[in-house]
């Protein structure tokens, strides 16, 4: 009897393995001359009487679509479906594939089974999709919030165009495309295509890098606060910041307080942040040492990062605003990058919440080991987002 039971178990396991492998097989078409593309939907919204008739920005991306005689898309060279509002954190690995039960996709490629980017100059591009280089027509369509694939929808639901434009992708280049609101008052929308350069720079493994963008719509900060999304994780950023802000960086070792600063890195001036959703320029990368804390052992560090965005002429040392004050008239907005982005400072604090920029993971014989990363912080209409990119690291040894 035990032998028969074992045979049955082995047979069932073999059947399940065959079934799983059969269902998961994906045939990828080789792309001879690719570019690498990642897409974020930054169209956040507040549902209220003022905008109850606006379309919900749940989208389908069509690259090189084919239209019928009535202008309705019937197929496309590349489709990115169920494109939802982006999440606050885009980690340095494709976190959405096979790990979510939701049909919604917080980015492209995200959950899509597509050919992704390689390791380029040591950086893992598996969160970027391979796209044939060259000129492409790209169309973003509104779609209903359900799990029906776009081309299976009723005809009447496949006719609402958000954006219809063309883009040029150069061979072997890395691009991040943002869908943005350009003007808060007129509700004009558009795209922002940025050609990244992190993979071309001589970046040190011992430094953590970060750059900043304020891609908020024109007129957002000056508009009525009742029209703005009440995103508590954004802290005082929810009300918007002035078009020109200075960036100050501080590092701390205590998990949930500012009582243990790294003294050489307190209120250090980094540079200026200027609102811009039009000019496609890569912002300057600033850096700080991975092991800035002199008490660290060179293997692991627990430092977390705080960035104070302050109006030109202001300084954190003489800040006139209390730390619990959310509406600072756009003059001050702190960002805390600590733990997993869910922890907050003890007491009342108006800082935005984002994850730590330092990745701590089991690598080699060390568990954990700290790794430096390349990061981008983007502010869009009262929301703040962090994208982290990491070099390849040695697998764990058990």
Please sum up the structure shown:
This protein has one helix and 22 strands.
Produce the secondary structure layout:
Elements: H1 2-24, E1 34-41, E2 59-67, E3 73-83, E4 89-90, E5 119-120, E6 123-124, E7 129-132, E8 134-142, E9 161-169, E10 174-183, E11 188-195, E12 207-214, E13 244-252, E14 268-274, E15 286-289, E16 304-311, E17 332-337, E18 352-354, E19 359-363, E20 366-371, E21 374-380, E22 383-389
Parallel strand pairs: 1-10, 4-22, 12-21, 17-18
Antiparallel strand pairs: 1-7, 2-3, 2-8, 5-6, 8-9, 10-11, 12-15, 13-14, 13-16, 16-17, 19-20, 21-22
Q: What would you say this structure looks like, in words?
A:
The structure is a single chain. With about 400 residues, the chain is mainly beta. Helix content is about 5%, strand content about 35%. The chain has one helix at about 1-25, and strands spanning about 35-40, 60-65, 75-85, 90, 120, 125, 130, 135-140, 160-170, 175-185, 190-195, 205-215, 245-250, 270-275, 285-290, 305-310, 330-335, 350-355, 360-365, 365-370, 375-380, 385-390. It is globular, with a radius of gyration of 23 Å.
Key phrases:
1 helix, five-stranded mixed beta sheet, single chain, 6% helix, mainly beta, globular
């Amino acid at each position: 009897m035990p032998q028969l039971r074992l045979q049955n178990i082995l047979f069932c396991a073999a059947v399940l393995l065959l079934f799983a492998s059969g269902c998961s097989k994906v045939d990828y078409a080789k792309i001879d001359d690719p570019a690498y593309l990642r897409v974020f939907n930054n169209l956040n919204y507040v549902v209220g009487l003022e905008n109850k008739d606006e379309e919900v920005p749940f989208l389908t991306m069509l690259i090189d679509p084919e239209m019928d005689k009535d202008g309705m898309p019937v197929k496309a060279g590349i489709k990115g479906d169920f494109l939802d509002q982006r999440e606050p954190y885009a980690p340095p690995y494709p976190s959405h594939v096979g790990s979510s039960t939701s049909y919604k996709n917080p980015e492209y490629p995200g959950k899509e089974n597509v050919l992704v980017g390689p390791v380029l100059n040591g950086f893992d591009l598996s969160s970027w999709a391979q796209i044939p280089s060259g000129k492409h027509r790209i169309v973003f369509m509104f779609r209903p919030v359900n799990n029906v694939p776009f081309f299976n929808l009723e005809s009447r639901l496949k006719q609402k165009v958000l954006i219809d434009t063309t883009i040029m992708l150069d061979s072997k280049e890395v691009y991040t495309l943002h869908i943005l609101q350009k003007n808060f008052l007129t509700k004009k929308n558009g795209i922002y295509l940025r050609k990244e350069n992190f993979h071309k720079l001589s970046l040190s493994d011992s430094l953590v890098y970060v750059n900043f963008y304020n891609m908020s719509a024109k007129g957002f900060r000056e508009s009525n606060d009742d029209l703005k999304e009440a995103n508590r994780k954004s802290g005082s950023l929810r009300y918007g910041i002035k078009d020109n802000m200075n960036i100050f960086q501080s590092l701390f070792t205590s998990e949930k307080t500012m009582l243990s600063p790294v003294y050489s890195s307190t209120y250090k001036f980094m540079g200026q942040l200027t609102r811009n959703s039009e000019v496609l320029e890569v912002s300057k990368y600033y850096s700080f040492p991975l092991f800035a804390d002199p008490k660290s052992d060179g293997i692991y560090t627990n430092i977390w990062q705080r960035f104070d965005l302050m109006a030109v002429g202001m300084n954190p040392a003489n800040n006139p605003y209390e730390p619990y004050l959310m509406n600072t008239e756009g003059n001050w907005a702190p960002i805390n990058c600590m733990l997993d982005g869910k922890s907050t400072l003890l007491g009342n604090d108006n800082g935005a919440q984002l994850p730590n920029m330092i990745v701590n993971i089991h690598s080699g014989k060390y568990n954990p080991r700290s790794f430096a990363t390349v990061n981008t912080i983007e502010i869009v209409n009262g929301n703040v987002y962090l994208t982290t990119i990491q070099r390849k690291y040695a697998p764990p040894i058990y």
